[in-house]
Amino acid sequence: MGIVLALLVILTIGSYSGAVDSEQEILDQLYGYLEMVHFPDAKDGLRDSKQTFEAEQILMSDIFGPTKYDRNVIPKGEGGLSLSIKPTVRIDHIEPLEEDEEAMTVHGSVTFEWKDGGVKWTPSDHHEISVISRRIGDFPMSSRVWTPVIYFKSAEPSDVRRSDGIELQSTTLTITHKGEVVLQRPFSVKTQCNFDFRDFPYDQQHCKLAITSTHSMFDVFFDFDIRNEDQIVRQLRKDKMAPTIGDFVLVWVSAFNAVIKSDLKLEILAKPWNGTEKDQLRAQTKVALFIEMTFERIDDKYFFLFNVPLLIVVVMAQGAACFDTKKGFLFLGAAFLLLTNQGGLIAEKFPSNDDGTPLIAFMYYLAFAHMMECLIGMFALAYYFGNREGVTTIRRPAPAKYIMDEMWARTVYFSVTGLTLAIIVYGTLFVRSWRHFDLRA
C-alpha cells in the first residue's frame, strides 16, 4: 500500500510539472486518486473470521457429538492393527554441552501425523471447510480429537512434565476432511548423555533424545521408515553443514526405533519374549524414537595449549645430547619446568570423569618418561666422561680413544632417546586408533 501511495504522489506532482499551481490544487488531485483506491475495512476481515469460526464450531459439534466420537478411545490403524503415527523432529537450537553434568539441552519442535477414521466430513456440506487448524487449547473439550500422550525422556523428567502446560499453549492441531490429523508442538529438553573423555581433547561425545508415549506398542506405533537412509542418518560434516555447539561440532545425526519398558528407564529389551513373559510384556512395552547426535570436540586450541608444549618438552630433552653436560642439564631443567606447568594446566582443563586415563594424560606420561630417560643418560655420560666440553670443542688435550668413546656413547644415547621419541608418537597414534574402533579393555 505504501508503494501505491508513493506512485500516486509522483503522478500528482508529475502532472503539475512545469506549471505553478497552488498547494490546494495538488491536494485535490491527490484526493481524487485516493478515491479510486479501495481500502478494505478491518471489520470485513473480522466478520469473515467470525463466520468461519462459527461454521467450524458447528462442524465440530456435528463430528464430535457425544454419540458419534469418543476422544478417549485410540483409533485403529489399517486392518484393525495398532495406530501408525509418523513423527518428524525439527531441531532448532542446541545449547553448549554441559560436560560436568554430562547433559545436553535441545530446543525444537516435533510433528506427529496419523489418520483417524472417525474424523471425516464433506466440505460442500460445511461451507467448503476442508481444514481446521488451531492451537489445541482453542478446541472445546467436547470437540477435541484423540491425541497421543507424548513425553520426552530427559535427565530431569519432572522438569519436562512441568513444562507441558506452557508448551500446550503453542501446540497446533490440524484436522482435514479426509481424517488426517497433524499435531505439532515445541519442546525444550535436557537429556542425559554418556560422555567418554578418554580421547580428550580428540574426543567424540554421543547424546540421545528419546521421544515416546504412554501407550502400548500394540495400540500406538511410530512409523519411522528405517529403510530411508537419507531420513535416519545424516553426516553433517560431509554435507558441509556441521554447526558449532560450544567447544564441539555436530558431525552426525541418526535416528532409530526401539522397544522400551513402560517405566522412565529407557532399557531396550534385547532378549526374545517367550511363554507367559510375552503376555506380561505386551501391555508394558512401547515404541520410542531415538535421535542420536555425535559431537566432535574442536581441538585447535587444545593443540596449541597441550600438544605443542609437550612436543617442546621432548625436543628439548632430546636436544640435551647435542650439548656438553652443563648445557644438557640446563635444557633438561627447562623441560622439567615446562612439563610441570603442563601437568597443572591439563589437570585444570580436563573435565571431571571416571572413564580411565585420557589420551592427553597418556601423552604427558610418555613425555615424562622420555625426559627421565634423557636425565639418566646425561648422568651416565657425566659419570663416565666427566664435566667436559663437547667433543667438537675440547679445550684440553685428550686421547683419541677417549674422544671416540665419548662420541660413541653420545651416539648410542641419542639413538636410544630418539627411539623412545618415536615410540611416544606411534604409541599415541595407536592408542587413539585403538579407542576409535572401540577395542577398549
Walk me through this protein's architecture.
- A hairpin with a 2-residue loop joins strand 10 and strand 11 (248-261).
- Helices cover 41% and strands 22% of the residues.
- With 441 residues, the chain is α+β, with helices and mostly antiparallel strands.
- It is elongated.
- A six-stranded mixed beta sheet has the order 3-5-6-2-1-8, with no helix packed on it. Strands 4, 7, 9, 10, 11 and 12 form a six-stranded antiparallel beta sheet that branches.
- The protein has helices at 2-15, 23-36, 42-63, 157-162, 164-168, 229-232, 276-282, 300-319, 325-349, 359-385, 400-436, and strands at residues 83-94, 103-115, 131-135, 150-153, 172-176, 180-192, 204-213, 220-222, 233-235, 244-245, 248-261, 285-297.
- The protein is built from eleven helices and twelve strands.
- The longest helix is centred in the C-terminal third of the chain and has 37 residues, at 400-436.
- It has three domains: 2-36, no CATH class; 68-297, Neurotransmitter-gated ion-channel ligand-binding domain (Acetylcholine Binding Protein, Chain: A); 301-436, Methane Monooxygenase Hydroxylase, Chain G, domain 1 (Up-down Bundle), CATH 1.20.58.
CATH architecture assignment name of the largest domain: Distorted Sandwich
Number of domains: 3
Rg computed from alpha carbons, rounded to a whole number of angstroms: 37 Å
Task: Please report which band the strand proportion falls in: under 5%, 5-15%, 15-25%, 25-35%, 35-45% or over 45%.
Answer: 15-25%
Globular, elongated, flat, extended or rod-shaped: what is the shape? Answer: elongated
The parts where pLDDT drops under 50 for at least 5 residues are 3-13, 15-20, 42-47, 156-166, 227-232, 263-273, 387-404, 435-441
Helix segment tally: 11
Largest sheet: 6 strands, mixed
Report mean pLDDT, rounded to a whole number. 70
